[in-house]
Amino acid sequence: MDHKSQSGGRAWIMLLLASAFEVGYALSVGGSQAFTVLSWSAAALVFFLLTLYFLSSALRTIDVGIGYAVWAGIGSVGAAILGSVLLHQPLTLSQGFWLAVIIAGVVWLKLADSAKLKG
Fold first, then answer.
1. Element (H, E) at 69
2. With 70 as the cut, is the pLDDT of residue 2 above it?
């Protein structure tokens, strides 16, 4: 494994962590009730700082357009699914379909980036 693919793999791990923290941020903001609940507001701040750090680290290697699209896609899908499960927010079949389209797009973007790193 060469250095370029190792740093690319590390960048994708950083991007996945940033995406997970983005989900935590979105759910914390929802729980903060417009930043009126201190514990949820503090959690939102921590998740926000973590997502920015890991996203900026990942974008040193991954192209901004691809990295941001993957981060936003995973964050959106994760927040919708976990919001439905944890916060009892409705999730319709139609919304589920379009979330699946986002997931497919994220997978294709990752595959396209992997091909670029090998080429």
1. helix 64-86
2. no
